[in-house]
């Protein structure tokens, strides 16, 4: 049974797109906040600790307590910092993360009931902006997120911030190369940059998932995704044991929070890309397709937490060695083999 995300659907209006954008901003921000609670609980379970327990039942109200603290904490701008760049850097990080989400399928299509005033009978699409170069757009916006931490560190009169921003440049730029090369092989097989086409190319069920044809590309993409989202063992940008808090050393309050909302939003974006490109997307499950992709996204999110609980940090030189001497050559070889197979 074939599936499609856009076939036989009502016309998408500007109002529907605006509503979708608001939903993405609201829901992903809420998930990012709840993700901090889940992460602390998962890490505590894996390391035989309790995690948040005192604020509300099972510590559930810790999320609200953290939110109140971020919104009410004094927003300090250091005296010798470049104030404009210092203020704009967190906005860049959060904005690029959410703009990237505009071109991936987030939540199912739905139509607002007619009885709701002003908004009734409005179709809200699964993709806020269904681009035929969706993969390229998302990767480009995630790459642009580099400027947030980079400018944040450079705007501070603080050596730890500058060290963190330098690590940002080398890590993000290096692993962007691996991300692009790893996903190029699946693009060659599908012949498109559209997420809809990737979904339809794998509509035959589990046996048609691209992970079976491109296992090497899948592993490379996951490793690069960990680096691009600043997750352990690649969280060198604010490595507390070495650089205090890296590019975020002098940030406080909601500006600090925007960096980490952007980080969690990027984690969700990477999970969505991996689910659609390699694990069949919405499958041929009919009405249950959205449940399946949510479970896939949740698995990748959990995997990132699992790795953080299990793996130690690596040194910057090890990070660069892995990228340029191991991952990049493997990615190039995988592309060459895929090209030969496609041509033959």
TrEMBL record:
E.C. number: 7.1.1.-
Membrane: is it a keyword of this entry?
Answer: yes
Outline what the protein does.
NDH-1 shuttles electrons from NADH, via FMN and iron-sulfur (Fe-S) centers, to quinones in the respiratory chain. The immediate electron acceptor for the enzyme in this species is believed to be ubiquinone. Couples the redox reaction to proton translocation (for every two electrons transferred, four hydrogen ions are translocated across the cytoplasmic membrane), and thus conserves the redox energy in a proton gradient. This subunit may bind ubiquinone.
**UniProt KW Magnesium keyword:** no
Its topology with respect to the membrane? Multi-pass membrane protein
Name the source's superkingdom.
Bacteria
PANTHER family documented for this protein: NADH DEHYDROGENASE SUBUNIT 1, NADH-UBIQUINONE OXIDOREDUCTASE CHAIN 1
Reaction equations catalysed = a quinone + NADH + 5 H(+)(in) = a quinol + NAD(+) + 4 H(+)(out)
Q: How does it assemble?
A: NDH-1 is composed of 14 different subunits. Subunits NuoA, H, J, K, L, M, N constitute the membrane sector of the complex.
Q: Which family does it belong to?
A: Belongs to the complex I subunit 1 family.
**Gene Ontology molecular functions:** NADH dehydrogenase (quinone) (non-electrogenic) activity
Where does this polypeptide localize? Cell membrane; Membrane
User: Which keywords describe this protein according to UniProt?
Assistant: Cell membrane, Membrane, NAD, Oxidoreductase, Quinone, Translocase, Transmembrane, Transmembrane helix, Ubiquinone
| Species in which this protein is naturally found | Sulfurovum xiamenensis
**HAMAP family given in the database record:** NDH1_NuoH
- Tell me which PROSITE patterns the record gives: COMPLEX1_ND1_1
Which major enzyme category is it?
translocase
Query: Transmembrane ranges?
Result: 12-38, 84-107, 127-151, 172-194, 206-227, 264-282, 288-307, 319-343
Protein name in UniProt: NADH-quinone oxidoreductase subunit H
Which InterPro entries does this chain map to?
Answer: NADH_UbQ_OxRdtase_su1/FPO (IPR001694), NADH_UbQ_OxRdtase_su1_CS (IPR018086)
């Amino acid at each position: 049974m074939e599936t499609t995300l856009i076939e036989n659907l009502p016309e998408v209006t500007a109002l529907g797109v605006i509503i979708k954008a608001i939903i993405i901003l609201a829901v992903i921000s809420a998930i990012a906040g709840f993700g901090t609670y889940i992460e602390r609980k998962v890490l505590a379970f894996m390391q035989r600790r309790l995690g948040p327990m005192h604020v509300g039942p099972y510590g559930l109200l810790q999320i609200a307590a953290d939110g109140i603290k971020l919104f009410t904490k004094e927003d300090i701008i250091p005296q010798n910092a470049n104030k404009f760049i210092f203020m704009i850097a967190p906005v860049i990080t959060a904005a690029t993360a959410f703009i990237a989400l505009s071109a991936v399928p987030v939540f199912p299509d739905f139509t607002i009931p007619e009885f709701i005033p002003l908004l009734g009978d409005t179709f809200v699409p699964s993709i806020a902006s269904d681009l035929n170069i969706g993969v390229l757009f998302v990767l480009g916006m995630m790459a642009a997120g580099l400027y947030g931490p980079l400018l944040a560190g450079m705007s501070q009169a603080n050596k730890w911030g500058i060290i963190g921003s330098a690590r940002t440049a080398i890590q993000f730029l290096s692993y962007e190369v691996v991300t692009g090369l790893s996903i190029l092989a699946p693009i060659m097989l599908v012949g498109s940059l559209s997420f809809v086409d990737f979904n339809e190319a794998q509509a035959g069920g589990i046996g048609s998932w691209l992970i079976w044809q491109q296992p090497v590309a899948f592993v490379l993409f996951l490793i690069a995704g960990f680096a691009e989202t600043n997750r352990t063992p690649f969280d060198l940008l604010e490595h507390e044991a070495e650089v205090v808090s890296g590019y975020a050393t002098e940030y406080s309050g909601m500006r600090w929070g925007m960096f980490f909302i952007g980080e969690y939003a990027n984690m969700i974006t990477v999970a969505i890309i991996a689910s659609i490109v390699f694990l069949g997307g919405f499958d041929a499950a009919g009405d249950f397709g959205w449940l399946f992709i949510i479970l896939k996204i949740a698995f990748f999110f959990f995997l990132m937490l699992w790795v953080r609980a299990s793996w130690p940090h690596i040194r910057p030189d090890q990070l660069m060695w892995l990228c340029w001497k191991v991952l990049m050559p493997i990615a190039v070889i995988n592309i060459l083999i895929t090209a030969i197979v496609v041509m033959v």
